[in-house]
């Protein structure tokens, strides 16, 4: 009977895809224990999987994944929404003074959380072009896909947090170091904003580039192509487009005037032809009437 109860609990655990542990006194094995090792009326309890918390610090460029297996601490995260700020002390004393913002997460089957879906479970949304997580294969194609809601619950496997405010404690791997960005801005206005430049300054001198040795052993400098950079060639093309547009407008105006003149001419010709036809009919009727009277 005890062995049957153990197998029943194991089936329930496998169906719910959770880890399992026994109430104090016995460890649950993957293989069935011997009959003499199972005590009568022994019970098993479900516990949740160890949740992973991915914490990122944008100011330092570092991120760290921590494991939390304490259900009491995880309870403080449940029923929270994406973009909501929480006190870092709910994760532990080392995060006291930190303010964290929930940026997303994945459930235990890998479905990502979606902002704006106000539920704590998965839903199937009809997606089309422009929606996140969907790329149409044909023009106008729509497809129904599973998406996780934006409310945190116990079935979240990985929760992503971003540090909004750094506390007093220094956390190893998060705030004790900083990783500079390897890539700089590409857009001309953003480069000007980064280096506080005016419109007259040459942006090309301030592009963040790197020098490295390629496979052939040559030293190569690699720099991004500056987007929205105003050069004499760009201004020339702009003037050419403006001139072409103006010429097109003038040509259309001339064509319209010529068409209007031609239509008026054709209408006048039709009116003159009709008038001559009517006068010819009148003269024919008049001559026929005179001939009839004389006879």
From TrEMBL:
Region named Disordered: 272-295
Keywords for the protein's UniProt record, in alphabetical order: Ribonucleoprotein, Ribosomal protein
Xref: InterPro entries: Ribosomal_eS6, Ribosomal_eS6_arc, Ribosomal_eS6_CS
Claim: Nucleotide-binding is one of the keywords in the record: no
Bias kind Basic residues: ranges: 277-288
Transmembrane residue ranges: none
Tree of life domain: Eukaryota
A GO-annotated cellular component: ribosome
Record carries keyword Protein biosynthesis: no
Pfam name, any one: Ribosomal_S6e
Family as reported in the entry's similarity comment: Belongs to the eukaryotic ribosomal protein eS6 family.
Protein name: 40S ribosomal protein S6
Organism, scientific name: Cyclotella cryptica
Taxon lineage: Eukaryota, Sar, Stramenopiles, Ochrophyta, Bacillariophyta
């Amino acid at each position: 009977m005890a062995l049957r109860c153990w197998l029943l609990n194991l089936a329930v655990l496998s169906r719910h895809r959770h880890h399992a542990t026994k109430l104090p006194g016995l460890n649950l094995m993957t293989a069935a224990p011997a009959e003499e090792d199972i005590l009568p009326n022994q019970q098993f309890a479900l516990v949740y999987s160890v949740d992973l918390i991915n914490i990122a610090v944008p100011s330092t460029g570092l991120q760290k994944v921590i494991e939390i297996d304490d259900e009491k601490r995880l309870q403080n995260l449940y029923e929270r929404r994406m973009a909501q700020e929480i006190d870092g002390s709910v994760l532990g004393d080392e995060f006291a003074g930190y303010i964290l913002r929930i940026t997303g997460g994945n459930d235990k089957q890998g479905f990502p959380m979606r902002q704006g879906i106000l539920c704590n479970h998965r839903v199937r949304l009809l997606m089309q072009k422009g929606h996140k997580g969907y790329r149409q294969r044909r023009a106008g194609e729509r497809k129904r896909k599973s998406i996780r809601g934006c409310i945190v619950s116990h079935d979240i496997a990985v929760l992503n947090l971003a540090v909004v405010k750094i506390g007093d404690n220094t956390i190893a791997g998060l705030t004790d170091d900083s990783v500079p960005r390897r890539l700089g801005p590409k857009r001309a206005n953003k480069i000007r904003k980064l280096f506080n430049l005016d419109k007259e300054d040459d942006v090309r001198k301030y592009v963040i580039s790197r020098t490295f040795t390629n496979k052939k052993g040559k030293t190569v400098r690699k720099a991004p192509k500056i987007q929205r950079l105003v050069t004499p060639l760009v201004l020339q093309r702009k003037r050419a487009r403006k001139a072409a547009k103006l010429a097109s407008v003038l040509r259309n105006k001339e064509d319209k005037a010529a068409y209007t003149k031609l239509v008026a001419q054709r209408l006048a010709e039709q009116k003159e032809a009709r008038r001559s036809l009517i006068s010819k009919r009148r003269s024919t009727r008049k001559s026929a009437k005179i001939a009839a009277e004389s006879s």
